[in-house]
Specification:
The structure is a homodimer. Chain A is of the alpha/beta class. Chain A has two domains: 243 residues, Type I PLP-dependent aspartate aminotransferase-like (Major domain) (Aspartate Aminotransferase, domain 2, 3-Layer(aba) Sandwich), CATH 3.40.640.10; 124 residues, Aspartate Aminotransferase, domain 1 (Alpha-Beta Complex). Chain A has 14 helices and 14 strands. In chain A, the strands form four sheets. In chain A, strands 2-10-9-8-5-3-4 form a seven-stranded mixed β-sheet, with helices on both faces. In chain A, helix 10 packs across helix 11, helix 11 packs antiparallel against helix 14 and helix 12 crosses helix 13. Chain A is globular and about 65 Å long. The N and C termini of chain A lie far apart (58 Å). At the A-B interface, helix 1, helix 2, helix 3, helix 4 and helix 10 of A face helix 1, helix 2, helix 3, helix 4 and helix 10 of B.
Chain lengths: 393, 393
């Protein structure tokens, strides 16, 4: 075998669906000296991190922590703790991640009812009401920010409806947390999970999660063991709670990074963080529209941090992404599932949501789309974005 | 709420049951710039890492990768892929981690038969033979390095016995890999998993794992879906295989660290690495015995990297660990389960297995045990360790 080459990752401008760009302070936190998972310093750090997570989730939920895995482990943790074999589960599907949750729930033994909407759309209370009556689910799953389509699912009214139907609501906030409001307590959400690598701007590897007291009661009253030992919150809560009972060896350095990322959000202020995501989204959107690109998500429900646009006819989807990466160092995402080969997904997440990134991407696309023979007014994209920035000053 | 304090982890000398001390190159690798999980650079890095993992596991197994979770997620990945509801599973239990595997297998729906030996002992082929006949298991689980007792389980003969009985052998090598031989191919092991934070000297968060072709066939022929979506190797192998189909967002920076840690082992040479662990174990052992401490594991089967010794009568177990940490910055572990309050667990893992650590710990224990009123010849521990080092030159 050849010698393994030295590690020299190229610097990238991460504007895909995640991971997002990492603030230098977070990278520095990652390489702080490792301590033990039962070290008094680490136990204290866990307390501080839980407080920051509660603030970010806008919740008082005691059981708020980070799952030792990526966002999909957060999804699995939410589902396998709530669902017992034979339980009726209703999952709302209008993209890859709703579909994934339905899959996870079925593997947990749930009797899964899926309701579907076309990709790019969101669910209304009227969509859910009949399904709630028909399925009378114990658990309902919904994606707040569908990363495959860029659609922003309104939750407040639906959460009320689900609660009135006596079900628990699981919300996927993987891409949402830190970029748009996730009002766990005000909206009465039961289990909400996120990913470290989207608007929190931390490398991938941890999944913040929170369980309402109602959800905790539900787990305590299960008749069957949680199928996953690794994700069983009855065990995990003894480590994250005051007992500090060893469960598994925590990912120490990733916890450092997530803590520092949450501190950065706390310093900026959560509302300021949302406003920043919204501003750069408006600028990017003005620019993309000036390039003749159209959004795939319902225009009334477009996420600021995930911009899914249709690839214009005649343009080589993969070639444009390849050139962005090789010539400009910019990563954007392609389409998943129904959008494969038809979409670009442009992320403005956390530290990546800033004007330098927006302007550079628009300038690069101006060059590449012209080369692809796509017709648009040259230079108009950057000008349109700059107008948005000038108006915001 | 108070302001979250800045992150300032204290430097520690990690001589507990893991995490182990991290070589500076590995910490530096952690904070390299994050790239996307489908970036051509990252996909290439995955190839190189898989090659290094195969070399460390001494295997040609195609399906060799790192689970995106800690060692316990590796255990769960091994078990839930092999075990279907109703399958007979035989687990050998003589410590915490065997017990854990039995728990994980039961949660996967396995019909679990446990055979038990007193803590600190290991299983012989004669212990297994009757149990194999009685239970006729599809899957047998065994811990190569039982981190709770420090016992080193011989595997070669047992692996033959299990294979002859037509069962698949799952081996926990969490603490073993990189410190003692793990001969996946030569011994014919079916699924073997490890942790990044023991003898590989990488922070916790990843679990190297390997599946034999026989194990892969078994998974392909399952009648039921794997209960975990996150850990389903049929899906994972499409991302780690040549297809590179997106599954979940890989923990990029942790992968950098594990890659660098594996490169360090490769540079040293696996055999030299084993010899180093053995040498420092002999020196530590000579010193601990000079302090009048006795090993809890069967003396013929003592792990080099995990030294579990009995706390002498009249000595305050927790106070000694607390003073080691606060006055010397040294972490050692307490006992788990049956050994709670009765044992110290001293790790010599990876970068932590070096003479400075051994000598300093013995010097500190000389001071603290004397203060506790324990009777021994002062200074003899360091002298005994030094004799071992001098003889090895």
């Amino acid at each position: 075998m050849s010698l393994p080459p030295p590690l020299v990752p190229p610097p990238r401008i991460l504007m895909g669906p995640g991971p997002s760009e990492i603030q230098p302070r977070v990278l520095a936190a990652l390489s702080c000296p490792t301590v033990g998972h039962l070290d008094p310093y680490y136990l204290e750090l866990m307390n501080h991190m839980q407080q920051l997570l509660r603030r970010t989730f806008r919740t008082e939920n005691q059981l708020t922590f980070a799952v030792s895995g990526t966002g999909s482990a957060g999804m699995e943790c939410a589902v396998v703790n709530l669902v017992e074999p034979g339980d009726s589960v209703l999952v709302c599907v209008c993209g890859v991640f709703g579909q994934r949750m339905a899959d996870v729930a079925a593997r947990a033994g749930g009797k899964v009812t899926q309701i579907e909407k076309p990709w790019g759309q969101v669910f209304t209370p009227d969509d859910l009401a009949p399904a709630l009556r028909r399925a009378s689910p114990k658990v309902v799953g919904l994606i707040l920010a569908e990363t495959s389509t860029g659609a922003w699912q309104p939750l407040e009214e639906i959460a009320r409806l689900v609660r009135d139907a006596g079900a628990l609501l699981v919300v996927d906030a993987v891409t949402a947390l830190g970029g748009i409001p996730v009002e766990v307590d005000a909206w009465g959400l039961d289990v909400v999970y996120a990913g470290s690598q989207k608007c929190l701007s931390c490398p991938p590897g941890l999944a913040p999660i929170t369980f309402s007291p109602r959800a905790v009661d539900h787990v305590q009253q299960r008749r069957t063991p949680v199928q996953s030992w690794y994700l069983d919150v009855r065990l995990l809560s003894q480590y994250w709670g005051s007992d500090r009972v060893y469960h598994h060896t925590a990912p120490i350095n990733m916890t450092y990074a997530l803590y520092e990322a949450l501190r950065l959000i706390d310093e900026e202020g959560l509302e300021a963080c949302f406003a920043r995501h919204a501003l750069h989204h408006r600028a990017l959107r003005a620019g993309l529209e000036a390039l003749g690109l159209t959004y795939l998500s319902d225009p009334r429900h477009t996420l600021p941090m995930l911009n899914a646009v249709a690839v214009p006819p005649g343009v080589d989807e993969a070639a444009v992404r390849r050139e962005l990466l090789s010539r400009f160092g910019i990563e954007i995402g392609g389409g998943l599932g129904a959008y494969k080969g038809r979409a670009w997904r442009i992320g403005l997440m956390g530290h990546g949501a800033r004007s330098n990134n927006v302007l550079l991407l628009l300038a690069a696309l101006d060059q590449l789309l012209a080369h692809e023979g796509h017709s648009f007014e040259r230079g108009a994209a950057v000008a349109a974005a700059n107008r948005v920035y000038e108006l915001s000053n």
